[in-house]
Write a structure and sequence with these properties.
eight-stranded mixed sheet; 8 strands; globular; alpha/beta
Length: 230
């Protein structure tokens, strides 16, 4: 049974152009130092979690009010039965989206035919991945997942969260080069958002420096047909 960690019953931002709910799943193989949800990293919940059956019962009552459901986390593809979850949601009439790090390419391959949208987190240039995700040996799997996504024809967004303590402007140029070579069409830069558990957060000046760099913004706008910042 999937290890659910909570539910957002309504969102307009996590699944583009749809009214959706978000299911959060427990567990993530990454240990990103800037993670906003470190309580979702362990495979077992460290607190009370909303039962998966309860979440599905809630969604069954929202079939005519919601367009879709987002599978998020944590890393939702860590759940061994995530494909079955997606099947069930499709049978209920929902469109299905996934937010993923790409750490499980074989599971993503199985899931892609069921998906209507994917939010894919590109953490860093490949050589910086061990630092940015806190683990060695995941880069090949993540690149394979990215290739599968691009080849699938499923609507998607590749996005990078810019924490200036770990990424530089040159890193973003390098990420852009990687994505351009893979013919990525949609790319989004996300501002790092400080939060209470972050004991040494970057300043707003450091965070905004990426977005105020005219050369970087101009380059990304020229490379990607669909480029956005948020």
């Amino acid at each position: 049974m999937a290890k659910s960690a909570g539910l957002v019953p309504f969102t307009t931002i996590d699944f583009p152009n749809r009214l959706a709910a978000v299911i959060f799943f427990q567990g993530c193989p990454l240990r990103c130092p800037f993670c906003h949800n470190p309580n979702l990293q362990p495979h077992e919940s460290v607190g009370e979690a909303m039962a998966f059956e309860e979440i599905m019962a809630f969604l069954s009552q929202r079939r005519k009010r919601l367009d879709g459901v987002v599978l998020s986390g944590g890393e939702p593809l860590m759940q061994s039965d995530i494909v079955s979850v997606a099947h069930t949601l499709k049978e209920m009439g929902f469109q299905v989206a996934v937010h993923t790090s790409g750490a499980y390419p074989d599971r993503l391959k199985e899931l892609l035919p069921l998906l209507d949208w994917v939010g894919f987190d590109m953490k860093a240039p490949w050589q910086k991945y061990p630092l940015l995700c806190g683990r060695e040996g995941l880069t090949a799997s993540i690149e394979k997942s990215l290739d599968l996504l691009i080849e699938s024809g499923v609507d998607y967004e590749v996005r990078t969260t810019l924490d200036p303590r770990y990424l530089t402007i040159d890193d973003v140029f390098e990420i852009a080069d990687i994505l351009q070579n893979k013919n990525v069409q949609t790319y989004t830069l996300q501002k790092y958002r400080t939060f209470d558990a972050d004991k040494n957060p970057p300043s707003s000046v450091e965070i905004n420096a990426f977005f105020e760099n005219e050369a970087l913004m101009r380059t990304l706008q020229n490379i990607f047909p669909h480029f956005a910042c948020r």
